[in-house]
Amino acid sequence: MNRPVTIGGITAPDTELTRKAADLIKKVHNISMQHHLHRSWWFSDFIGIRRGLKYDREALYLASVLHDLGLTQEFSREARFEVDGADAASEFLLANAYPEKKAELVWDAIALHSSAGIADRKAPEIALLHFGAHVDVFGLRLEEITPSLVDDTLALYPRLGMKAAFQEAVAEVTRKKPHHALGTGLVDIGRRHVHGFDCPNVCDLIDAAPFES
């Protein structure tokens, strides 16, 4: 049996369910995205510890490693990718006898993880997933994490072309569901990476509303 992962004296949750979640992402994500998910967990937890927050570490771990299921072929459905991922994670957790209330918390964290200005005002588990994922994608709040912890995390979970891999994964769902890009950062991904991408302009939608003014 693999030993629990420890970085800087901090040990990740190690339960039957966390191991099942880690096994699931190995099946559906490439190695670059797997490492992104694990780094998101560690960065989330580092910030939570530094801020002295009280939160369910197992719930945060589960939300972190499962938060991009909606970017995979296996779990991409009809909603925006964050909601697809939240639905898939909730189904997985409930099928493994995870408490419904906690599954709802994980659902909220995943569904809101890209929602700047909203997620950070919610429960710690929700805010911390938002923080951790954005540390890894954009470098936001990186200054809250000790450089040695960042280095140790990158040594254990190297980026392996993360910038290109992440944009490719998001571009794929944008290619399939361009209508969900409206009002999100997927518009930028679509314009740069999806040939023939087109998305309504919000101003045009307002002007086309069925009212005189």
Q: What's the structural blueprint in terms of helices and strands?
A:
Layout: E1 6-7, E2 10-11, H1 16-28, H2 31-51, H3 57-66, H4 81-95, H5 100-111, H6 124-138, H7 147-156, H8 162-176, H9 186-193, H10 202-207
Antiparallel strand pairs: 1-2
Helix pairs in contact: 1-3, 2-3, 2-6, 2-7, 3-5, 3-6, 4-5, 5-6, 8-9
The major beta sheet can be summarized as: 2 strands, antiparallel
Strand fraction band? under 5%
Helix content: 55-70%
Net shape = globular
Unreliable stretches: none
Number of strands: 2
* Radius of gyration computed on alpha carbons: 18 Å
Q: Distance between the terminal alpha carbons, to the nearest Å?
A: 66 Å
How are strands sequenced across the largest beta sheet? 1-2
- How confident is the prediction overall: mean pLDDT? 96
Instruction: Give the class from helix and strand content and strand pairing.
Output: mainly alpha
Element-by-element helix/strand order: EEHHHHHHHHHH
Count of alpha and pi helical runs: 10
